[in-house]
């Protein structure tokens, strides 16, 4: 039987194990300096593994790691760009981390961390592919046989859906048995159903009144996220639906283009843009999260919103089949803008159904896609495929 041992130094409750299931020493290497889904996924996995009682070190390129450090996760900063000097510096830093921490498992997130670990003398045990394909060409040598040889530098791989598994198999020659599908988890303690007061305050901050329906987009303003589709949905639904409001939260290279599109569509009064923020209050305020992406790794934003009770309308891309139960947790559409708009018009024609879905949405996520559940699944794979 496992005992529970409280660590006074970190405030973490650690599960005691027999020798055959002792806590692991896990080195995670991945990017957390920029805002986005990969950063969230890397930070949350490190948190979940620590909460499950394992010793964790994170080698990263920066960002806010204070929560992890408070839990007892050791964090070291290095450079993860593909420039020669950054690679050299990263090799030195990774080698020091390997020497000092002596990990049982090395788990990398992306090509740059994988290369650094490999050149430091330790082939990564696991590589998580956070999208449906590896980063496209990042240098003049990153093509053909060189790309194929340098990209899959790991013993085994985690992917977020079957299309990513197929990509690794056909484009990179990775054997099917070396790939496992594991979904990103969400911190259901942080992403929770708001109280009535919290929801009222959040909606007021977005200028949403009683009886109005708020449609929310959260993400990078990038071409493959198709943020202009939200503007077009606002334009087409405003006639006869004067209680609809739209909020676009995020930053990116399309920010000016989206602002111009809002002005050209004449929807400035119902469609507003907001810079990057902690999305929790945005989720609290929303009635529907929309994600019309051309492709996604898993769409962690969608799971976060669902954990707060907010239904989702999203394209049939990475992870959609694992989070959307049609009409219960959300709705799916094609990746083309017209398909998204037609689905949006249908869903928004009956806003009362969205309110009725909120309890089911939260319960479904909490039972299947929690952070702790993800961490336990990942550790199970670590142990099952232990490097001998």
**SS element count, helices:** 15
Tally of DSSP β-strands = 15
- Tell me the distance between the termini: 27 Å
User: Strands of the biggest beta sheet: in what spatial order?
Assistant: 5-4-3-6-7-8-9
- The unreliable regions are 1-19
CATH class of the largest domain: Alpha Beta
Let me know the average pLDDT. Answer: 91
Overview of the structural elements:
The protein has 388 residues and is α/β, with parallel strands linked by helices. The chain has two domains: 197 residues, 3-Layer(aba) Sandwich (Rossmann fold); 173 residues, Rossmann fold (3-Layer(aba) Sandwich). 41% of the residues lie in helices and 17% in strands. It has 15 helices and 15 strands. The strands form three sheets. It has a seven-stranded parallel β-sheet with strand order 5-4-3-6-7-8-9, with helices on both faces. A six-stranded parallel β-sheet has the order 12-11-10-13-14-15, sandwiched between helices. A two-stranded antiparallel ribbon has the order 1-2. Strand 13, helix 11 and strand 14 form a beta-alpha-beta unit. Helix 8 runs parallel beside helix 9. It is globular. The relative contact order is 0.11.
Summary?
The protein has helices at 37-51, 66-71, 84-101, 111-119, 144-150, 162-172, 196-205, 228-237, 255-265, 280-285, 300-307, 320-323, 337-348, 351-368, 371-384, and strands at residues 4-7, 12-15, 25-29, 55-60, 74-77, 105-108, 126-129, 156-159, 179-181, 213-218, 244-249, 271-274, 288-291, 312-315, 330-333. The chain is α/β, with parallel strands linked by helices.
Give the topology, please:
Elements: E1 4-7, E2 12-15, E3 25-29, H1 37-51, E4 55-60, H2 66-71, E5 74-77, H3 84-101, E6 105-108, H4 111-119, E7 126-129, H5 144-150, E8 156-159, H6 162-172, E9 179-181, H7 196-205, E10 213-218, H8 228-237, E11 244-249, H9 255-265, E12 271-274, H10 280-285, E13 288-291, H11 300-307, E14 312-315, H12 320-323, E15 330-333, H13 337-348, H14 351-368, H15 371-384
Parallel strand pairs: 3-4, 3-6, 4-5, 6-7, 7-8, 8-9, 10-11, 10-13, 11-12, 13-14, 14-15
Antiparallel strand pairs: 1-2
């Amino acid at each position: 039987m496992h005992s529970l041992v409280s660590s006074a130094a970190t405030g973490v409750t650690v599960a005691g194990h027999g020798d055959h299931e002792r806590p692991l020493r896990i080195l995670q290497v991945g990017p957390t300096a920029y805002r986005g889904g990969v950063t969230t996924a890397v930070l949350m996995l490190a948190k979940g593994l620590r909460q499950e009682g394992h010793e964790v070190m994170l080698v990263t390129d920066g960002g806010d790691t204070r929560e992890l450090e408070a839990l007892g996760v050791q964090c070291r900063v290095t450079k993860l760009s593909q420039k020669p000097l950054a690679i050299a510096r990263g090799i030195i830093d990774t080698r020091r981390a390997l020497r000092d921490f002596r990990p049982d498992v090395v788990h990398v997130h992306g090509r740059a961390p994988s290369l650094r670990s490999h050149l430091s003398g330790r082939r990564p045990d696991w590589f998580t592919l956070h999208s449906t394909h590896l980063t496209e060409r990042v240098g003049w040598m990153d093509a053909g046989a060189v790309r194929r040889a340098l990209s899959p530098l790991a013993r085994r791989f985690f992917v977020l859906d079957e299309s990513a598994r197929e990509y690794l198999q056909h484009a990179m020659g990775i054997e099917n048995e070396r790939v496992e599908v594991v979904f990103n988890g969400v911190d259901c303690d942080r992403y929770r159903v708001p109280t009535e007061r919290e929801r009222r305050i959040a909606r007021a901050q977005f200028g949403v009144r009683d009886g109005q329906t708020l449609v929310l987009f959260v993400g990078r303003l990038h071409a493959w996220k198709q943020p202009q589709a939200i503007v077009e949905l606002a334009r087409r639904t405003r006639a006869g639906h004067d209680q609809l409001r739209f909020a676009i939260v995020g930053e990116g290279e399309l920010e000016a283009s989206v602002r111009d599109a809002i002005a050209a569509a004449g929807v400035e009064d119902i469609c507003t843009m907001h810079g990057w923020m902690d999305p929790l209050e945005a989720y609290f305020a929303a009635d529907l999260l929309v994600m019309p992406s051309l492709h996604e790794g898993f769409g962690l934003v969608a799971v976060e919103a669902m954990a707060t009770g907010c239904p989702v309308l999203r394209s049939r891309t990475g992870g959609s089949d694992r989070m959307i139960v049609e009409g219960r947790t959300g709705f799916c559409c094609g990746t083309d803008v017209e398909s998204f708009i037609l689905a949006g018009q249908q869903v928004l024609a009956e806003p009362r159904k969205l309110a009725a879905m909120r309890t089911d949405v939260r319960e479904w996520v909490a039972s299947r896609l929690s952070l702790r559940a993800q961490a336990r699944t990942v550790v199970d794979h670590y142990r099952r495929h232990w490097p001998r």
